[in-house]
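Lab notebook, bench 4. We co-purified these components, and the gel suggests they stay together. Before we commit to crystallization screens, I want a quick structural picture of the whole thing.
Request: model the full complex, all chains together.
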Amino acid sequence: MSSDGKDFEDRLTRALGRSAAAAPTRVDGIARVAVERAGARSRRRAAGVVVVAAVAVLAALTPSLLAGGGPARSVVAGGSSSSSADARWRTVELAGIGAENGPEPESIEVEVPDEWVALNPGECDRIAGVVLGPPDVGCDGPSLSLFVGANFDMCCPPGLVSRDGEPTDGGYVYVGDQSTLFVDNADRDVARRILASARPAGTLAVGVGRWGEQQVYPGGVGGYGVEDPTTIVAEVPADARVSVREAGPASASRDWWSAVAVADGWRAVWFGLGRRVEITGPSRAVVDVVASTLRTVSASDSDRRWQRVQRDGISVELPLSWTSPPDCTDSRPGPPPTFGAAGGECQEVPGAFFYADVSAVSFAYGRGVSECESDGWCVLGLVGDGAVFARGLTRAQAVRLDASVEAAP
Amino acid sequence: MVVGGQRRVSGPIPFDDWVAARGPALLRLAFVLTGNAVDAEDVVQEALSRAYPRWSRIAGLADPDAYVRRMVVNAHTSRWRAWRRRVVPVAGILEEADGPSTEQARLAPDERDRLWRACLALPAAQRVAVVLRFYEELEYAEIAAIAGVPEGTVRSRVSRGVAALRAGWDADEREQDER
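Here is the predicted assembly.
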């Protein structure tokens, strides 16, 4: 290793060590709280053992009758293989736990890999009523969990949730009036099929065994007449009742969706690239899963997502989707950006402002990359007497844009 | 067994004593991994709550520290926790810590913070590998045992994590030089 590399690693070690010095130091009560938590988990585990025992007995009696369950039985999980021509999958019916004085527990149906079995929710530290997963993998392996009436603080919209750098996927969907179904740590195709298949028991199954990619928005023309190679695509199951269509420009940005019931099924609306995309389907789960697969796809060369523009003696790279003038709503005081993203108020959309004479302008940010006071990252580039100020960028975009600032030829 | 620098010769150490001796180190590790005091305490509580029912067995291990440290790392990396924060009701509230407040820690604008923040922005698997390597100063084999992945994977994660940190650091340095 070079001495330069060793120096950096030493610096990293010192930095982490000094950061750790700011950690909380008092451990009073930690042991007590840990003991209390362990007690609570033990009580949940005891309940889980009863549940799993009931499931096991039922499974031994008859696999085809594992369904439903009256109020006297808190939860039933098992398999009544029905739908799948694909022998590697089966449909199971799961019944949630009914809360005291709460609504009647509802049953849902969902497709799972054929080898999955009921796990012990208590052992896996799940407050879920039902947990299924592969045998002999343990609680950290792929799993499905069904919750009823739980109040979650979700990180992301319903559907598939992927995390950068993680090899596995999962997600969650709402089913029926009370149930939330989670899949953790599963292969992406497995998670997608499980989640998209979930539906209230007794309703028609959704065909989620085969999926394809559908182009929804074919790109457009950006600033200076540059062809925008960016498209919007969705993963769609081979069920004719599921449709995805572009529904026009978006007048606002939104990063969250949730399907709503409509006359003939469910509908969700997704926003991206200043476009509105509508997804409809027979179940809430499949609509949310499809919405979660929507993404923008650019040409393989990432440079094509950027355009180099020149204004006021400055040459700089900007996101290709920014246009001049931006396609935004100019209803508030203040100038719109010279180049900007589509949708929303011009005074708020991500964009870039150019100034020919910086002596006439007072900037709230220093030169280079800064965290914006509102959303995202900002860049102030100075070239001679001129300046470019960009806002609403991701950190990576800001770094790239900042590095691209130069005097126009 | 060595606990807090003192060798014990009789029987396994009681849970409370062990937590008193090793709790601060676990909190520091969790703090470096999570980036804030609240999550650090939650992660440590979670790990200890799992250790407690098995304490008689864990305390008899050759290296109970390593065992519980692995539990802390697992508690931190669990996607389950990340998705459903605060789902499980907290069983109690710790007294206020002596260290800087979460807000103070978050806002400390010095250079150590730059590297640490950059580390926190790494993908979870890389972050754990980098912290265990450069904060806990563990060998690759030890990290592999904690993370449950082959040693080669750990080396790759550390290498990529350091490369990403280095790239960000160099960019920031250039940026400051230009100012």
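The CA atoms of residues 140 and 151 of chain B lie 6 Å apart. Worth comparing against the SEC data before the next meeting. Strands of chain B lie at 2-3, 6-7.
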